[in-house]
């Protein structure tokens, strides 16, 4: 990854202006054209460096229930299972870990019915051996940023 690409990722995650034309402002700050910036962002999306650009709102403040979910998935099924999970907009994080429960992700929804439906779909996937649902009881926010 080039130094300029690292710089772009840093401003996208930490210094994104909430204004009418943010990409013009960011491009100027980065010393590139808005078109170059948008092409780089598209490249990041295509190679899965980033999934989306957008705000992450407080689920609880919007009336949603948030769940941390851990799944024990057979190694040969991890990629397909992760891709399926990532296809849901209500999923905000998804991590592979070297542990008995190797796939951890968060899911938020308005109703218990939506949550139960999502969990049922995960449990039916080939290679998913067990699913643990860990409802949020208290939120502790930290500023999480990737270092480039």
Per-chain topology:
Elements: H1 3-14, H2 22-30, H3 34-46, E1 65-73, H4 78-86, E2 91-96, E3 103-109, H5 112-124, E4 128-135
Antiparallel strand pairs: 1-3, 1-4, 2-3
Structure description:
The chain is α+β, with helices and mostly antiparallel strands and 148 residues long. The chain has 2 domains: 3-46, Orthogonal Bundle (Arc Repressor Mutant, subunit A); 60-135, Alpha-Beta Plaits (2-Layer Sandwich). Helices cover 38% and strands 20% of the residues. It contains 5 helices and 4 strands; from the N terminus they run αααβαββαβ. A hairpin with a 6-residue loop joins strand 2 and strand 3 (103-109). Helix 2 (22-30) crosses helix 3. The radius of gyration is 18 Å and the shape is globular.
Task: Supply database-style keywords.
4-stranded antiparallel beta sheet; Alpha-Beta Plaits; Arc Repressor Mutant, subunit A; alpha+beta; 148 residues; single chain; 2 domains
- Helix and strand content put the structural class at alpha+beta
* Main sheet: strands, sense, barrel: 4 strands, antiparallel
Number of beta strands: 4
Average residue pLDDT: 91
CATH superfamily of the largest domain: Lrp/AsnC effector binding domain/regulation of amino acid metabolism (RAM) domain
Concise overview:
The chain is α+β, with helices and mostly antiparallel strands. Helix content is 38%, strand content 20%.
């Amino acid at each position: 990854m080039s130094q300029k690409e690292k710089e772009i990722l840093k401003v996208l995650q930490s210094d994104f202006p909430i204004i009418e034309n943010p990409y013009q402002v960011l491009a100027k700050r980065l010393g590139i054209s808005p078109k170059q910036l948008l092409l780089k962002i598209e490249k990041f999306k295509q190679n899965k460096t980033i999934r989306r650009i957008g705000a992450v709102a407080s689920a609880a403040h919007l009336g949603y229930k948030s769940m941390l979910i851990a799944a024990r998935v057979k190694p040969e099924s991890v990629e397909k299972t992760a891709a399926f999970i990532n296809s849901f907009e209500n999923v905000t994080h998804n991590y592979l870990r070297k542990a008995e429960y190797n796939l951890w992700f968060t899911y938020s929804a308005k109703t218990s019915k939506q949550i139960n439906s999502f969990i049922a779909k995960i449990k039916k996937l080939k290679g998913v051996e067990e699913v643990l649902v860990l409802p949020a009881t208290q939120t502790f926010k930290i500023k999480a940023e990737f270092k480039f």
